[in-house]
Amino acid sequence: MTGAAASFTVQRERVMLEARMTRPRQAKLTPRERRIVRRILAGRTNREIADDLGVSYQSVRNALTVIYEKCGVRTRLELALVAAARKKRRG
After folding, report:
1. The domain containing residue 14 runs over which residues?
2. Are 29 and 67 in contact (CB under 8 A)?
3. What integer pLDDT is reported at residue 52 of this predicted model?
4. How many domains is the chain partitioned into structurally?
5. Which pLDDT score, from 0 to 100, does residue 21 have?
6. Distance between CA 89 and CA 9 in Å, rounded?
7. Are 9 and 42 in contact (CB under 8 A)?
8. What is this structure's pTM?
């Protein structure tokens, strides 16, 4: 990929992420999902989150899939950015 193409790709991804961060979502997270997101923001791994909550590793992975969908993100990093932005807006 050339420098110009790479730059365009990065810029496009940034615009798409910003759109997802500001787009209102209908579905609210459950208390358990919010606990998982808080641990993601704290830098915990899926295994650590599972141990903290007393659930299986697979349960955490399944919950993250639902959380990603509800928040309109595709990656853990995007989830952390969206959650941090929402937390900042709330004060």
Report:
1. 3-90
2. yes
3. 97
4. 1
5. 57
6. 28
7. no
8. 0.69
Query: How many whole angstroms separate alpha carbon 9 and alpha carbon 32?
Result: 35
* CATH number assigned to the domain comprising residue 63: 1.10.10.10
Cβ-count burial of 47 within 10 angstroms (0-12 exposed, 13-18 middle, 19+ buried)?
exposed
Residues in the chain: 91
Output b/e per residue, 9-24; b: 16+ Cβ within 10 A.
Answer: eeeeeeeebeebbeee
Q: Mind listing the pLDDT tens digit of every residue in the chain (91 residues)?
A: 567 777 777 777 776 666 665 555 556 999 999 999 999 999 999 999 999 999 999 999 999 999 999 999 999 999 999 888 887 777 6
Please name the residue that has the structure tokens 């193409």. Answer: 5
* Tokens read off for 57: 């590793």
